[in-house]
Amino acid sequence: MRDRMLTADVPLGPFEGTKITVYSAKGKNARLHVRRECGQLRTTNVTTTEVPLSADVVDRFCSGCADWGPRVRPTSGLGIFMEALGGAGLLHQLQAYREPDEDVYWTQDEVQAAAELLRSRRDAADEDDEDDDGRWEARREAEELQERVLSRWRRAAGSLHRAQAVIGHFPWLTDWARPKLLAKEGYFESLRAQAAFFVEPAGLVVAAAAAELGTPSLPADNPAFAVLGNRRQISTGLSRLWRRWQYAAEGGWEGPASRAFRRYDLVEGIRSNKKGHAEALEGVGRLIQSWEDEARAAAAATDSTPTVWVTARLPEDTEEPSRGDTRDVLDGLDRWTLGVVVTWTVTADWSRRTLTLKVPTLVADRLLASSSVLSCERGAEAAPAEAVSEAHPGSVRPGVFDDTAVFDRQPVTLAHLRALRSYSYAADQLYIVFSTSGGAEVLPLQAIEKRVEQGWLGVIVAGASDLPENLLSPWIKEVAPTPDADEGPHLGHDSAGQDDSFGADLGLAAGAQAAVRWAHGERAKEHNLRLLVMARGVPDLRSLDAGRSGVLSVAVWEGLLTPGPLDLTPFRAPSTDRWRRGSGLPLGVLGPVQIYATNADPHSKARDIHPSAGTHGTEVSRRATTSSLSPTCWPVTTGTGAASAAATLRAG
Predict the structure, then answer these.
(1) Backbone angles phi, psi at 22, to 5 degrees
(2) Read out DSSP for 239-257?
(3) 72 Cβ neighbours under 8 A, 6+ residues apart
(4) pLDDT confidence of residue 181
(5) Helices 414-423 and 77-85, interaxial angle, to 10°?
(6) Nearest 5°: phi and psi at 382?
(7) Is the pLDDT of residue 2 over 90?
(8) How far is residue 512's CA from residue 522's CA, in Å, rounded to a whole number?
(9) Predicted confidence band at 602 (pLDDT cuts at 50, 70, 90)?
(10) Beta bridge partners of 376
(11) Other residues' Cβ atoms within 10 Å of the Cβ of residue 249
(12) Does 567 have pLDDT greater than 50?
């Protein structure tokens, strides 16, 4: 059985009974297919049926379609569930990292021997003493094995995180997945124990002590350093050396031998045969040794026994997830922090990125400092994992997205939105939402997340991909440009009497054509138009600029903004200036219109928006810049200045 295949034993939970469309040949026991174009559907007489999803239906899927699962909208609850199961999702993760890989395998004895060899070399007085080719080769192999073990432990942690996170969103999978998770956890623990052979707990404590050392008194007057130049140059060089040494000392668990090469930093750029070079090396060696002794003395002055309980939270992903993303949950941790996690983790809830550690006092002090990579707080003794109820408000089920009637929708939570981002490639779009505080609104996903964080209570009504196909299809065909279409309507006042298309570039149709003009492929064009039609109902386009590029593409913004330069010269006040005079016409219906520009620099003196002389009108010309993916808008009224990206035109 392939590790990504949906099988009848996988619990469907609340999605059981959801209507799906399947295709089959004639016959009661014919295999079911979720794709009409499935290669295993070898007949021209295809039956299309709508059936309730169940274990029996899944059992009848052909092997190819079982890999895909039911084909439904990716932003529906069932679509998110299927995406979380398939691909690199739960079904694959439960099979991965359960046992040693026959292609990546090592014995316990090999790990221990490699760790002992590396430890003996770290304790050596001079790491440059590698005159034996055999010893050098043995050390290189030991270092390679260390990195392989640590790398596999990290990837196994990432796999556990992804598996547990899916179960957290769909808790009815808990009992079914438990045996497979126990196998993964057992193998992960064996990897952690092997990785711990390479980490020196005493070195981690010394590193924590080194991180707390204050800048020492630097011997700038020592004649041994005269080769560096004058006193100021010596002081600068020693200060730089101290910072580099402390950064190296606090960043890992290796002993002084791993930092001995830092003595060459001080004489960098000085010829080795220059007088005073050897004296400087000897002096800096003694200086670095004094810092090493101070760090070890500070570590020895405290109890190195793990006595302090710390609850640590791994950093959340700051980048947008993508399909097939393989970043592991331990990305972003420095070498010292990884060593602490390997050595002193007692329990872990990988789904919530939460670890319970029991560490020595010095290590706890560093973890609890604000500069720590982990978000830590003092905790009590590790408690047993809390069972997740199937009725947990963060679980994804029908009624959260578009699986039920709007009347039955449930308030959306951060956990729901996190699942949408993680498992639906179509998540980055606009949504129609409803709340008692704001009524019906169109918002980007990031804006919804910010509101939910602040306690907003609302429901998702529909996303752009949920808009009715039978309503949009005729419009999409009408908007899509034909191959023989010309460059569009001609602009200019002189052709007004002769050109029937004069002014057409200011209409809604021109905006829709701008949204698809540069899109590649029919799906991209349709996606842009879906976003465009939703955004057109927004009274203030600034609400769509959620502070993250890519919410709306440039093409969609082009369709929303004024399609061409809007010259309001006739509405300017009469003047003797032949270049800036107007006719003094009233703005009329243009009075309440909002004009936006893509130039996001509020201090720019470019001709974005210019106030008129007097109060009769405003000349506006929009200047788009390709470096701005979405407009940043500042509202102004007539006469307030030229450095705006949006204006409300008002007649005087």
Answers:
(1) -130, 160
(2) HHHHHHHHHHHHS-S--GG
(3) 18, 20, 78, 79, 82
(4) 94
(5) 60
(6) -55, 130
(7) no
(8) 14
(9) very low
(10) 312
(11) 25
(12) yes
